[in-house]
């Protein structure tokens, strides 16, 4: 063991005791190691193991090696900003052992470096604190902290937070007085109490709107629905001052007040260009927070928003840089506020922060200098994608906006599909031993190994997805789902999970289901999942509509929410976010997209139909064509034929406005480099036909010798279990 007198020190630390006795400790020329044959205690073994691990971490992260020879320099694991330990806490603990020359903390790292003016002080600190769990809150504010200490040759240089601002960002410190700050906070407190029944609370903050309601998701407002009252008079002084000093030229007409508890934040985003003019204003009250600005080229500039400060996002900072606040309870800031100094870093706890964000609505299209991020200019330059009116056009649409997309994103897609859905697992495990299963549209093969007592084969249109299946040891092949190269009646069971709704005409969707049933033997069962137009049923929203819970980087989840970080154009707003979306699988002209399966379902069976059966029968027997909204125009379908209309790009995490649409998928550059094929575009659009209630049953009933055993709604999906009837 490195530390002499370790047993005497464990559990007896307090500041006065160490100050009194520190000079009586015997300092060796080297830290003592265990004597050969001497048995180490359990605590000593644990401390040594943790120490070795921390040394490896330091070498891996910083390329710095520790030393077995005592020196003035200490490496202290678990004393870093990444552990929630502040510079002041490190100083208060370690200054009892002697004069400290320097303390260095690095952003987001779980360790600190302490430099003493003498070797004796460093050895004394090491003897006392190595392997010791600190008391919370008497000694440290973060619970469960144990220091593991090693000597070093030298302490690395400190890192300071860059003080530069994004181009176009105006930062006004102490722009209002403390009295004015209290007036703003008292106003919001009063409004919150008066409107408790209508006050909206998002997962990441409490929010209230004035002038116009700010619509999250598309980051837009509805100019046809102004709110009563306009901007509150408490804001007049602030806005008058900003206009008088020339910071803004137009008076804002929309205000959003957000209140954040410690640990809450804002997802990084660029406010939509078209709804608002240049010059977004944000007033910070109550507590500081660090707002992270990120440029598309990778630059990252954190800006500390102090209480009573105002920022105005203009030009590049408004239209190009994303801005957001990481959800955490403390911020890493410079230890000194001296401008331009190379300060060390420390941790400052957040309090309750209230922000007043002012915007001026825009009446016309945006003509900014950033067309790649501008929804107005993108809309005018985008080529319209039309619904097909022929078999050839349908095949071309699906090839470009289904097959080619999934070849590009196969690796990333597979990484977001790792947890089987419970109702599908239930179907597979109900199959008898020795049954032959055909998974038509198997994707990455996550269902092929569920039931070890059956034989499973899979097929998919995507070569890259089939390759992933092969690497996992599954029996798979590439094929077009409209022509599966299996003989009639070969399979005891078939599944088509999240597949059929990538077909762009009714005839092709019906053909896909017929092909599944052709492969199935008489008496065999098939399970089909399709994405539902109704993403809210019985007042319960699907996961697709629910707001995402922000989690720490690196955490795994069964849902796509934590695995598919997506940049999407939502009504023109480019938003960096975690997007919960459909679980798609690409096969032939089919590639599916269904919402994560949950336990709560709405079910009907052949024996006990729900009331919605009547609507199915009416749809089946009615001579009236079904009216479908596409983009801003209406068209009619009759016998599967549909007039040619423009496909709209869906706004992620909102209700579907029409059944035929394009859904964005953004592939990050890091993930693109891992793909077998790499395209030029970062943003892909996938075609979907989302099914209305009863539509799947109607489609299945058109196929002869098929009985619907059960159909149900499963958290954003319409599902059906079919049985192939025996030949008469």
From TrEMBL:
Pfam families: 2OG-FeII_Oxy_2 (PF13532), Methyltransf_11 (PF08241), RRM_1 (PF00076). The keyword Magnesium does not apply. Residues 251-362 form the Fe2OG dioxygenase domain. It catalyses: 5-(carboxymethyl)uridine(34) in tRNA + S-adenosyl-L-methionine = 5-(2-methoxy-2-oxoethyl)uridine(34) in tRNA + S-adenosyl-L-homocysteine. Residues 72-154 form the RRM domain. Transmembrane segments: none annotated. Its EC number is 2.1.1.229. Signal peptide: none annotated. Keywords: Cytoplasm, Iron, Metal-binding, Methyltransferase, Multifunctional enzyme, Nucleus, RNA-binding, S-adenosyl-L-methionine, Transferase, Zinc. One of its GO terms (biological process) is tRNA wobble uridine modification. Its cofactor is Fe(2+). Residues 610-626 have a biased composition (Basic and acidic residues). Its main location: cytoplasm. It is an enzyme of class 2 (transferase). One of its GO terms (molecular function) is tRNA (5-carboxymethyluridine(34)-5-O)-methyltransferase activity. It is found in: Cytoplasm; Nucleus. Gene3D superfamilies: 3.30.70.330, Alpha-ketoglutarate-dependent dioxygenase AlkB-like (2.60.120.590), Vaccinia Virus protein VP39 (3.40.50.150). GO terms for cellular component: cytoplasm; nucleus. Belongs to the alkB family. This is tRNA (carboxymethyluridine(34)-5-O)-methyltransferase. It comes from Lingula anatina (Brachiopod).
């Amino acid at each position: 063991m490195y530390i002499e007198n370790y047993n005497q020190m464990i559990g007896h630390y307090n500041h006065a005791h160490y100050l009194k006795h520190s000079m009586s400790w015997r300092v060796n020329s080297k830290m003592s190691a265990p004597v050969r044959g001497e048995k180490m205690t359990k605590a000593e073994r644990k401390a040594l193991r943790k120490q070795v691990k921390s040394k490896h971490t330091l070498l891996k992260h910083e390329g710095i090696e520790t030393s077995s020879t005592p020196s003035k320099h200490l490496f202290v694991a678990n004393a870093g900003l990444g552990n929630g330990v502040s510079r002041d806490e490190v100083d208060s603990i370690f200054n009892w052992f002697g004069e400290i020359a320097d303390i260095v903390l690095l952003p987001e790292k779980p360790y600190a470096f302490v430099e003493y003016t003498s070797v004796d002080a460093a050895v004394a600190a090491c003897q006392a604190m190595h392997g010791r769990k600190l008391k919370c809150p008497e000694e440290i504010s973060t619970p469960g902290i144990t220091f593991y200490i090693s000597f070093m040759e030298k302490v690395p240089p400190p890192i300071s937070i860059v003080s530069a601002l994004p181009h176009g960002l105006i930062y006004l410190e102490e722009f209002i007085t403390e009295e004015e700050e209290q007036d703003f906070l008292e106003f919001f407190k009063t409004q919150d109490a008066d409107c408790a029944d209508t006050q909206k609370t998002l997962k990441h903050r409490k929010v209230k709107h004035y002038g116009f309601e700010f619509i999250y998701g598309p980051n837009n407002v509805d100019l046809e629905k102004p709110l009563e009252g306009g901007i509150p008079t408490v804001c007049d002084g602030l806005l008058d001052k900003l206009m008088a000093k020339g910071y803004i030229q137009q008076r804002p007409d929309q205000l959003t007040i957000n209140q954040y508890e410690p640990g809450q934040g804002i997802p990084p985003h660029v406010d939509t260009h078209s709804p608002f003019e240049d010059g977004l204003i944000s007033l910070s009250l109550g507590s500081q927070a660090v707002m992270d600005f990120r440029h598309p080229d990778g630059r990252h500039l954190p800006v500390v928003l102090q209480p009573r400060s105002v920022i105005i996002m203009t030009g590049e900072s408004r239209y190009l840089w994303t801005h957001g606040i990481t959800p955490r309870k403390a911020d890493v800031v410079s230890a000194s506020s001296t401008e331009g100094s190379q300060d060390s870093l420390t941790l400052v706890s957040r309090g309750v922060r209230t922000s007043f964000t002012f915007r001026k609505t825009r009446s016309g299209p945006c003509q900014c200098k950033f067309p790649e991020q501008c929804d107005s200019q993108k809309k005018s330059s985008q080529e319209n994608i039309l619904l097909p009116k022929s078999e050839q056009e349908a095949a071309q649409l699906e090839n470009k906006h289904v097959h080619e997309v999934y070849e590009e994103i196969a690796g990333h897609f597979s990484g977001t599909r790792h947890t089987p859905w419970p109702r599908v697992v239930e179907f597979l495990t109900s199959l008898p031993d020795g049954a032959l299963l055909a998974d038509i549209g198997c994707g990455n093969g996550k269902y092929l190994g569920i039931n070890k007592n059956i034989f499973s084969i899979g097929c998919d249109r995507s070569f890259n997805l089939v390759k992933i299946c092969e690497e996992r040891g599954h029996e798979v092949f590439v094929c077009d789902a409209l022509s599966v190269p299996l003989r009639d009646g070969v399979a005891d069971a078939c599944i088509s999970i999240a597949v059929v709704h990538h077909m762009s005409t009714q005839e092709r969707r019906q053909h896909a289901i017929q092909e599944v049933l052709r492969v199935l033997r008489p008496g065999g069962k098939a399970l089909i999942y399709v994405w539902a137009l109704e993403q809210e049923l019985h007042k319960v929203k699907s996961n697709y509509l629910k707001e995402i819970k922000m989690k720490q980087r690196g955490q795994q989840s069964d849902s796509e929410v934590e695995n598919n970080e997506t940049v999407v154009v939502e009504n023109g707003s480019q938003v960096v976010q975690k997007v919960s979306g459909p679980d798609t699988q690409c096969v032939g002209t089919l590639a599916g997209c269904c919402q994560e399966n949950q336990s709560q379902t709405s079910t009907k069976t052949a024996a006990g139909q729900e009331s919605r059966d009547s609507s199915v029968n009416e749809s089946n027997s009615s001579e009236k064509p079904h009216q479908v909204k596409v983009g801003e125009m209406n068209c009619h379908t009759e016998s599967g034929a549909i007039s040619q209309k423009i496909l709209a790009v869906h706004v992620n995490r909102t209700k579907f406005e029409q059944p035929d649409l394009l859904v964005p998928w953004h592939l990050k550059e890091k993930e693109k480099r891992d793909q077998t094929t790499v395209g030029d575009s970062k943003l892909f659009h996938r075609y979907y036909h989302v099914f209305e209630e009863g539509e799947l049953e109607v489609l299945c009933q058109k196929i002869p010798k098929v009985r619907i055993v059960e159909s149900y709604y499963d958290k954003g999906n319409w599902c059906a279990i079919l049985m192939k009837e025996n030949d008469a």
